[in-house]
């Protein structure tokens, strides 16, 4: 670590993916950070502003060399898929580098749960150290953290939507209907995200169990809600953007005034959560770190309905990672994000 008056030098590993590239752009323009290096597994040697011209980050993507790239940096963002991320994170932590990890490798606290949904874990010794990177829930723990598990995009939106009612002990049952753009699947092409299949189409996926479900259940449980969770995502013909619609069967009757008070208490002081009167849309939050929420008490059914829109590659990935970097490195939490 260098003196507090100089920009913090950041390595972004996995900079050729959607989230990694946006992270590079945010770091590059950040008043308190410096992009020390950007690495990529498949595009090494290419310029990032040629791979993604619209981000305008004039750096050459390099092949990751931990001994070289970990030297003289203040923190790293690892934007690798699950399984591939853990050994890189472990190597960085062995060298004393604070890390924000995009993958699911350190989000789930229970090793058996992780391995049931993902792959055998190669660095389980780091699970206890990892802090779940949702600042609205874990701000104090994130300050100075050495390893931050950046949340998944669906859990980010769902947990922000449900945290106030979960804390109040109101969740007897919840259905989470989520809709997202194709960028959530990452840069790799597949038949599911092919233009010919996605255009003018909407379909559900992960109906037998989506990998973000145990993450949502884990964090709702921390908040005191252990009720059944039904989570079904849908793919929309959008580039980016995500909307979750949460239908909560409550444990006791509540009024709109009760709901308004819960959400005001939770979010009035939050810099990146907006509670509004009308249903949010994905255009409202595109290319931002904001989550936009509406909560309603439905007197007819006795349910609480909560809607949350985020940009899946910003608040659901890259800009949330920078928010976490700010907290971990002692910078103003909103720096570089407004």
From TrEMBL:
<dbReference type="GO" id="GO:0003942">
    <property type="term" value="F:N-acetyl-gamma-glutamyl-phosphate reductase activity"/>
</dbReference>
<keyword id="KW-0521">NADP</keyword>
<dbReference type="GO" id="GO:0051287">
    <property type="term" value="F:NAD binding"/>
</dbReference>
<keyword id="KW-0055">Arginine biosynthesis</keyword>
<feature type="active site">
    <location>
        <position position="153"/>
    </location>
</feature>
<dbReference type="InterPro" id="IPR000534">
    <property type="entry name" value="Semialdehyde_DH_NAD-bd"/>
</dbReference>
<dbReference type="GO" id="GO:0070401">
    <property type="term" value="F:NADP+ binding"/>
</dbReference>
<comment type="function">
    <text>Catalyzes the NADPH-dependent reduction of N-acetyl-5-glutamyl phosphate to yield N-acetyl-L-glutamate 5-semialdehyde.</text>
</comment>
<dbReference type="Pfam" id="PF22698">
    <property type="entry name" value="Semialdhyde_dhC_1"/>
</dbReference>
<keyword id="KW-0028">Amino-acid biosynthesis</keyword>
<protein>
    <recommendedName>
        <fullName>N-acetyl-gamma-glutamyl-phosphate reductase</fullName>
        <ecNumber>1.2.1.38</ecNumber>
    </recommendedName>
</protein>
<dbReference type="InterPro" id="IPR023013">
    <property type="entry name" value="AGPR_AS"/>
</dbReference>
<keyword id="KW-0560">Oxidoreductase</keyword>
<dbReference type="InterPro" id="IPR000706">
    <property type="entry name" value="AGPR_type-1"/>
</dbReference>
<dbReference type="InterPro" id="IPR050085">
    <property type="entry name" value="AGPR"/>
</dbReference>
<dbReference type="Pfam" id="PF01118">
    <property type="entry name" value="Semialdhyde_dh"/>
</dbReference>
<dbReference type="GO" id="GO:0005737">
    <property type="term" value="C:cytoplasm"/>
</dbReference>
<dbReference type="InterPro" id="IPR036291">
    <property type="entry name" value="NAD(P)-bd_dom_sf"/>
</dbReference>
<comment type="pathway">
    <text>Amino-acid biosynthesis; L-arginine biosynthesis; N(2)-acetyl-L-ornithine from L-glutamate: step 3/4.</text>
</comment>
<keyword id="KW-0963">Cytoplasm</keyword>
<comment type="similarity">
    <text>Belongs to the NAGSA dehydrogenase family. Type 1 subfamily.</text>
</comment>
<dbReference type="GO" id="GO:0006526">
    <property type="term" value="P:L-arginine biosynthetic process"/>
</dbReference>
<dbReference type="InterPro" id="IPR058924">
    <property type="entry name" value="AGPR_dimerisation_dom"/>
</dbReference>
<feature type="domain" description="Semialdehyde dehydrogenase NAD-binding">
    <location>
        <begin position="9"/>
        <end position="145"/>
    </location>
</feature>
